[in-house]
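Annex B. Sample input.
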Amino acid sequence: MPNIASILKAEISRVARKEVRTEIEALKKASTHYRSSIAALRRQIDGLEKELRRFSKGSARVRSAPDATEPAEEGPARRFSAGRLAAHRSKLGVSAAAYGKLVGVSGQTIYHWEQGKARPRAAQLESLASVRSLGKRDVAQQLQE
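Annex B, continued. Sample output.
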């Protein structure tokens, strides 16, 4: 005859495992719900931060707009994007040294601009804009000269 104490102990551990399993399932469901809620809140915060940055940029432009008494700069204001510079250079299929030759700077300078380590000056922005308007044939023609 089996020992009644061992049977009782086995039954108690089985019931305890069953209870623990049901509690853990409830906790897992709650944890999943909380994680999804947190992710939704983070997305909402990111959206609000983007909107705030957009509005703060707009207000900065309004505040920093030149007065009517100040003389306006000649020509349009040029903007620079490292990613667009790299994309344009790869679209033309030229090396950084060749692209630098078109702009009037070294190839290393082009690499620094593309990596965001440096930014071009106003005069260099103008020459970048003129190179930007060229096509593959024009670039090949200018590099052969």
